[in-house]
Structures are given as C-alpha cells and as structure tokens.
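Ticket #4471: structure export looks truncated?
Reporter: QA, pipeline team
Priority: medium

Steps to reproduce: submit the single chain below to the structure queue and open the exported record.
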Amino acid sequence: MRGTRFTILQGNRRGFTGSTVVPRDPATPVRVPAANPNLHVRRSHRASVVYLPCVAPPPRRQLASVGQFSLVTHEPALPDRVARPGWRLIALVTLFALAVAPLIHASADTKPKVRRGAQAAQSTDAVVRCANLIYAGSKSSKCFSDKFLATTRVETNIETQSSFDPVKLSKDELFEYPFSVMTGEGVFNLLEEERVNLRAYLERGGFLLASAGCSSKEWDQSFRREIKKVFPELELVKIPMEHKIFKTVFDVTSVRLKKSQGTASLEGLEIDGRIVLIYSPEGLNDTGNAGGGCCCCGGNEVRNSQEINVNVLTYSLTH
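Actual output as written to the record:
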C-alpha cells in the first residue's frame, strides 16, 4: 500500500506550530535521508508523517528540502522510540482545548438582546412585533385586546403588527419581541425557567405591560409575589401623572375606571434608569374588543385603556 502524501509538523514540547501536506507522485518512492537527524518518521497503514522536533522554527530552506520527499508505507514501521507517539497526544489535546475554549466562554451568556426602537423597526419585516405571553405553563393572556396596535399605527409613524403573537414566557423566542403583554385572572405561579427568562428579557431591552384581568385581586397578589421573586432587589413604584408616559401620544390626565368612582394609578419597574415594566392592578385589557368569548363580568376595568396602552407602547420604543 503506497502513501501519496506526507505531513510536515514542526513542534516542541508545547505542541505543534504548523503543518503542511505535500502531494507526490506515488510511482516514484523516495526515502528520507538518514543524514538528516531532525527528521523522525511515523508510518501507518494509511499514511506516513514526518515530524520536525525543534525548539526554534527551522530555516525556510530546511522545510523546502523536506517538501521534496515522498514516503512509501511498504517498509516496516519505525520503532516507537523514533516515532514519538506522545507528540500526537499533545497535538490532539491542544486542538481540543482550542476548540472547546470559545464554547465555554459563550455558554456564560447565551441570551440574545432585544431589538428596541429603531432597531425593532429595521428588522427584516420592518414591523414591531408584540407578544401575548403564555405563562405558568399554560395560562394565556388572550383576553388583552390588541385594538390599540391599530390605533398606534394611525396616531404615530410606528408600524406594528395588527395582532399579538402568542409566545411562551419560558422560550428564547420571547427575545424577538420588544413589547409584550401579560394578563389573567386568579392565582398563578411562574415556573423557575419563566422567572429566569423574564428577568433576562427585561434586562436586555424587552418591555412588559401587565394588567390584572377584570381587576382580579388574586392575580394582582400573584403577580406582585412573582415580580418580587424575579427582582428581589427592586420595587414596583407608582408613576405620577406628570410622567412622560402619560403625554407621549395622548394627553392622559387620569386613569378612569368603568364600574366605580375614582381613579386608579399605574406602577413601574425601573432598571438602570429605564422603565421596563408597567403594571396596572386594574384591567387595561379593553375586554370588549378582545373577542374570543372574553368578558369582564362583574370585575372592573380602566375606561381609557386604549389611549394608555398606545402611550405605553410608544414610550417603550422611544425611551
């Protein structure tokens, strides 16, 4: 069995510093001159390898002269003391370390950043995508009306989707959406992977608009408990009516309720000087326009929720 090429590896105890493969006409076998003490040959049934052990790289003319040789595997293999098999192990370990190091570094931070503002508008479809969260495993936020998205397109130059996309809170798909909504009724508990993903999402540019459906007290208590688990170092803070969020598109002077006297207020969560979450314990759902059998029967809602939601969406993309 004849070898048609050989590999030159120059190396020392620290590993190999380079290699080259030189084709040769197999019909003309040439032996390596025994006079060259720097050459050591290891043969196998498939190929022959020439090793150049050296502390310093050999002169270019030496490499050029080596490139003139072709090896044939008819002859018996040289003894292991000449083949120096330990060098091959060193090479494999070195190559493995170089391949694995970038993966270890990347694994420390795998969550993508969320496109916001102009970045979101410059995505492939040039449309701002909005997520309707599925959380606590299977609870849906479907009874949050998306009618304010169409109002945003009319009142601003922001091009949004006409409807929400249902997205699981635990999935990395969430990071493709700069804006998301979350609502519901009754008691719930987030899964641990949902808590981790929600924190990463809000820290990396995402924005959440959350509202207790029909002003559900149980949902309000569950949401506050979960946000405290996600951000134990932060607090939901009441947003004054003088804040820009109430002036962004519509001039909102109060948060009016449908089925009771008085007004409500919004609360916000801030990270590094940026509001990343707006929460209303009273329903911002605009359930009458949500469709799908949604009904706020017996509960309360915010009367001017459409204007508030337009302002929140616009603010989230511009600040």
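Status: closed, not a bug. The export was complete when the record was re-opened. Leaving a note from the reviewer for reference: DSSP finds eight helices and 13 strands in the chain.
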